[in-house]
């Protein structure tokens, strides 16, 4: 009987010549065959070898000998060939609702693992519905949203949660995202296109959820938090904020739902008793809370600028001509916030983010049992890091990949999951801290009633 051929590469970066992909290549090369790194072999994949070559030259002045694989989302055979040659595919080709399904399918069929930087709830939930059982059978881990801002949202909530030492418990945690730069902040067109298509397909997500069993809701101490005003002034952190319609709260809820059904987390395929004990100990410190995300600025005028952008996407995204206008003239409808050309390297280098997590809860869980109970404790934590789309996202994606390569036996055999439930009990937070993304406790205080 012939022996099964081992994968040739540890990682294949698919879409390596794209705007985000080339930054992922640059980040991955820092760890290629370096001391103590599990990344020994790497390949770049895409439709055009000359563009892959250009991306590699851009990412590294030394031009390392990294092979290229030709693969296209319209050619399933090329995707299966790519997936059969690697342990892990990092997918940077979006919008994922248009191009992601065949890549996931190829990875699951080949039994290789898959990470992406998707922020599209319908795609993530559809992949779970379609491929979860087969991924378990094939031993393929499929994890979306391994970038900004879903991983900071998940790890940020967990970091805040761990500050609530028993008998204290959180009731709600609100995340406030502040983008900062001394130059104009410009977003990736692919992110904008994903948002527009998300509005267009909102009914499909609702239909998908209606067709599936309802997720388990975690028990959260105390009454549901009030809705609050549309525009909020958070005086303690000095920010004005408005709700951000992102995937983060949805991703967090998926992790908390899985955790509710698996209080000790998910068992690793080859983990030893010591690792199992460590995993269970970590999850015992995580307390569920209501969670939301808001976009924030230091002044009210900045927030007022976000509202017309949100309204234009929300209204024009509902019909085909409106979507054509949005996608043809993104700079006009976002006041220059998104451009087809993307940001310059100088704009990327000058940008940074702060993500504040303001937690309200009870100093004693017994207080939460009163139906009229109001939180009496506030804990504020914060994550800071470099530009979100092209610096922080590659850092997160590559660190998730390195953990997966190094600790594969401590992770589930396979399945389709959000990142938090997989990477929460690993050393991902420490790794991010070592690579420029900081986690800080800002304050603990009583709330006067």
Automatic annotation (TrEMBL):
One of the GO BP terms on file: glycolipid biosynthetic process
InterPro entries, per database record: NAD(P)-bd_dom_sf (IPR036291), Saccharopine_DH-like_oxidrdct (IPR051276), Sacchrp_dh_NADP-bd (IPR005097)
One annotated Gene Ontology cellular component of this protein: mitochondrion
The entry's keywords: Membrane, Transmembrane, Transmembrane helix
Family: Belongs to the saccharopine dehydrogenase family.
Gene3D superfamilies reported for this sequence: NAD(P)-binding Rossmann-like Domain (3.40.50.720)
Name the record gives this protein: Saccharopine dehydrogenase NADP binding domain-containing protein
Domain Saccharopine dehydrogenase NADP binding, first and last residues per copy: 11-138
Transmembrane segments: 300-326
Record organism: Centaurea solstitialis
Source organism, top-level taxon: Eukaryota
């Amino acid at each position: 009987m012939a022996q099964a051929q081992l994968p040739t590469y540890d990682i294949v970066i698919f879409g390596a010549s794209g705007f985000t992909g080339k930054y992922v290549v640059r980040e991955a090369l820092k760890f290629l065959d370096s001391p103590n790194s599990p990344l020994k072999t790497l390949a770049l994949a895409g439709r055009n070898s000359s563009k892959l070559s250009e991306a590699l030259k851009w990412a590294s002045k030394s031009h390392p000998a990294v092979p290229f694989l030709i693969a296209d989302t319209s050619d399933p055979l090329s995707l299966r060939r790519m997936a059969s040659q690697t342990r892990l595919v990092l997918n940077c080709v979006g919008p994922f609702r248009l191009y992601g399904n065949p890549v996931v399918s190829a990875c699951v069929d080949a039994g290789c693992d898959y990470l992406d930087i998707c922020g599209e709830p319908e795609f993530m939930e559809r992949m779970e519905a379609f491929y979860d059982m087969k991924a378990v059978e094939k031993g393929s881990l499929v994890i979306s949203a391994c970038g900004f801002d879903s991983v900071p949202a998940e790890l940020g909530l967990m970091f805040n949660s761990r500050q609530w030492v028993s008998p204290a418990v959180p009731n709600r945690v609100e995340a406030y995202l502040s983008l900062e730069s001394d130059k104009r902040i410009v977003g990736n067109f692919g992110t904008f296109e994903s948002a527009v298509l998300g509005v267009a397909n909102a009914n499909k997500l609702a239909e998908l959820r209606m067709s599936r069993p309802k997720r388990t809701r975690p028990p959260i101490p105390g009454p549901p938090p009030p809705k609050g005003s549309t525009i909020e002034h958070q005086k303690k952190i000095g920010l004005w904020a408005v709700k951000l319609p992102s995937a983060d709260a949805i991703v967090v809820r998926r992790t908390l739902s899985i955790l509710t059904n698996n209080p000790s987390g998910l068992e690793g395929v080859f983990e030893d008793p010591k690792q199992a004990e460590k995993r269970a100990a970590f999850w015992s410190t995580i307390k569920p809370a209501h969670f939301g995300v808001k976009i924030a600025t230091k002044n009210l005028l900045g927030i007022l600028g976000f509202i017309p952008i949100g309204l234009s996407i929300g209204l024009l995204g509902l019909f085909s001509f409106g979507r054509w206008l949005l996608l043809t003239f993104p700079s006009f409808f976002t006041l220059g916030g998104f451009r087809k050309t993307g940001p310059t390297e100088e704009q990327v280098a000058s940008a940074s983010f702060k993500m504040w997590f303001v937690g309200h809860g009870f100093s004693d869980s017994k207080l939460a049992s009163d139906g009229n109970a109001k939180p009496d404790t506030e804990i504020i934590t914060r994550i800071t890091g470099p530009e979100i789309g092209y610096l922080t996202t590659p850092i997160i994606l590559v660190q998730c990949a390195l953990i997966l390569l190094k600790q594969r036996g401590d992770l589930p055999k396979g399945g389709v999951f959000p990142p938090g439930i997989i990477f929460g009990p690993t050393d991902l937070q420490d790794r991010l801290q070592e690579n420029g993304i900081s986690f800080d406790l800002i304050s603990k205080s009583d709330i006067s009633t």
